[in-house]
TrEMBL record:
GO cellular component terms, semicolon-separated: cytosol
MTTase N-terminal domain sequence ranges: 34-152
Catalytic activities: N(6)-dimethylallyladenosine(37) in tRNA + (sulfur carrier)-SH + AH2 + 2 S-adenosyl-L-methionine = 2-methylsulfanyl-N(6)-dimethylallyladenosine(37) in tRNA + (sulfur carrier)-H + 5'-deoxyadenosine + L-methionine + A + S-adenosyl-L-homocysteine + 2 H(+)
PROSITE patterns, per database record: MTTASE_N, MTTASE_RADICAL, RADICAL_SAM, TRAM
InterPro entries: Elp3/MiaA/NifB-like_rSAM, Methylthiotransferase, Methylthiotransferase_CS, Methylthiotransferase_N, Methylthiotransferase_N_sf, MiaB_methiolase, rSAM, rSAM_horseshoe
Annotated binding of [4Fe-4S] cluster 2, by residue: C189, C193, C196
Keyword Transferase among record annotations: yes
Protein name: tRNA-2-methylthio-N(6)-dimethylallyladenosine synthase
Cofactor note: Binds 2 [4Fe-4S] clusters. One cluster is coordinated with 3 cysteines and an exchangeable S-adenosyl-L-methionine.
GO molecular function: 4 iron, 4 sulfur cluster binding; metal ion binding; tRNA-2-methylthio-N(6)-dimethylallyladenosine(37) synthase activity
E.C. number: 2.8.4.3
Domain Radical SAM core: 175-405
Needed cofactors: [4Fe-4S] cluster
């Protein structure tokens, strides 16, 4: 597929940095520190983009606020993956009318995947007149310029041009702290699964250069980050557009060679592009976490074909088998869509049988949601909502049983965990496979790797005692 990547020139980004300086000076002259609230919907890619938005806001002199109340700038980073996500955004944007009335100088921006859809931008323009600015994912790096425009003119701005896709290095980042970090290694998606809006709103696949990624990871390790997740819509096709002869497995291996004690993870993988080389690379490095999120979506070949997934149930199962043959403790998770247009009960039952066969550690399950402009949205969809809900419940019940059984098998074992937070009386930690463990201990253990004996479990988490 043709890839048109627009590399944002350093001069352009320098210009944005200068604008940040101007905004900072504006607030310094006003004699107070402005506050910003950034609210994120959706996936980790959006969380990672929000870190950039916060970074740009911090460079403009803003302090981060915990709520929208009284904030000088509000940014909602939106998600378009399912209708429910969009409805939540519309509801919350609507409620901001009142917040803004209490704080008339407030500027409200919307960005993220919803803003990659013309019909949404149109609706915001016409029906949500308290929104001051909109930018789509390609325009994110221009946020300082958009903010300055809105602050200095009090006019609205809509930066929703459909560029083929941009890649910008050197945008400031403000991470929320802690021991974990996400690193975007590529943007966009070329797969056009027939139900999915992502390729339309995030553009074609474009990979960051390996040296830029390595430099970012080195910086994170120097700051004490111990758990790094490489992010992309389909990390398995990393590097194809660069032509450097570096594929995703090579990138992983290179990062895993960096000195220090850390776990390296990644998401999301498309099964059609997951290679034996990738599994072998994971198996060979103690720093690459033995965790694989491998969305299957359906266990039925006809449905997989209609979804344009380009693998069969058998091919998927043999991939899983190979992964487990080289990593017997591999923690496997997946995404499943229930009620794809035209799915029959028997086809749904193929998905049920697949999850019984694979025995995933955990699943993310979704009822199909039509997305305007995608091929699936115009396919006949005879199954009723009640039928789909019933299938969904059967799937969740089966998976909960499996997750509970797998968690039960941890009891009595000692596992290595990374302590990442405090929750009430307990510390929270993650195993190498990403399972949540709670156990007693002091807050200054956060950031430590330690051994914990597992003493209890439920469907979603484990409890233990430090060794
Ligand atoms: N309806 C329901 N679920 C969807 N997903 C993507 N698009 C849709 C849709 N239109 C799910 C897929 C994907 C996950 C991120 O969201 O399972 O892997
Ligand atoms: Fe959507 Fe498929 Fe791309 Fe994932 S691989 S983002 S499901 S089109």
């Amino acid at each position: 597929m043709e890839t048109k990547t627009t590399v944002i020139a350093p001069e352009e980004l320098n210009k944005q940095a200068e604008i940040c300086g101007e905004i900072r000076a504006h607030w310094a002259a006003a004699g107070r520190t402005p506050r910003a609230f950034v609210d994120t919907y959706g996936c980790q890619q959006n969380e990672a983009d929000s870190e950039k938005i916060r970074g740009m806001l911090a460079a403009c002199g803003y302090e981060m606020a915990e709520t929208e109340e009284g904030a000088d700038v509000i940014v909602l980073n939106t998600c378009a993956i399912r209708e429910h996500a969009e409805q939540r955004v519309y509801g919350n944007v609507g409620a901001l009318v009142h917040t803004k009335r209490r704080h008339p100088g407030q500027k409200i921006f919307l960005c993220g995947c919803m803003m990659g859809q013309d019909h949404v931008v149109q609706k915001i323009r016409e029906s949500y007149r308290h929104v001051d600015g909109v930018f789509n994912p390609h325009q994110l790096w221009r946020f300082p310029e958009l903010l300055k425009y809105v602050l200095s003119t009090n006019k609205r701005i809509f930066a929703a041009e459909d560029s083929a896709g941009s890649i910008a290095e050197g945008i400031p980042l403000l991470r929320q702290g802690g021991v974990k970090a996400w690193v975007s290694i590529m943007y966009g998606c070329n797969n056009f699964c027939s139900y999915c809006i992502v390729p339309y709103v995030r553009g074609r696949e474009r990979s960051r250069r390996p040296e830029d990624i390595l430099a970012e990871v080195r910086g994170l390790l120097d700051q004490g980050i111990r758990d790094i997740t490489l992010l992309g819509q389909n990390v398995n096709s990393y590097g194809k557009d660069l032509g450097l002869g570096v594929d995703f497995a090579d990138l992983l291996a290179e990062i895993a060679r960096l000195p220090g004690d850390f776990w390296l993870r990644f998401m999301t993988s498309h099964p059609k592009d997951a290679t034996k080389k990738l599994f072998d690379t994971m198996a060979a490095s103690p720093k690459i976490a033995k965790q694989f999120h491998l969305p299957v979506q359906s266990g039925n070949d006809r449905v997989l074909k209609e979804m344009n997934r380009r693998y069969t149930r058998e091919q998927y199962l043999s991939l899983v088998e190979y992964g487990r043959s080289v990593m017997p403790d591999l923690v496997l998770t997946s995404d499943i869509i229930v009620g794809f247009p035209g799915e029959t009960e028997a086809e749904f039952e193929d998905t049920l049988s697949l999850i019984e066969q694979v025995r995933y550690d955990a699943l993310f399950t979704f009822i199909y949601s039509p997305r305007k402009g995608t091929p699936a949205a115009s396919m006949p969809d005879p199954a009723t909502r009640q039928e789909k809900n019933a299938w969904f419940d059967r799937l969740v019940t089966a998976q909960n049983r499996i997750s509970e059984e797998i968690h039960r098998s941890y009891v009595g074992k000692t596992v290595r965990v990374l302590v990442d937070g405090v929750e009430g009386e307990s510390l929270t930690a993650r195993t190498e496979g990403g399972r949540l463990v709670r156990f007693p201990g002091p807050a200054d253990w956060i950031g430590r790797f330690m051994d914990v004996e597992i003493t209890g479990h439920n469907t979603w988490s484990l409890t233990g005692q430090p060794k």
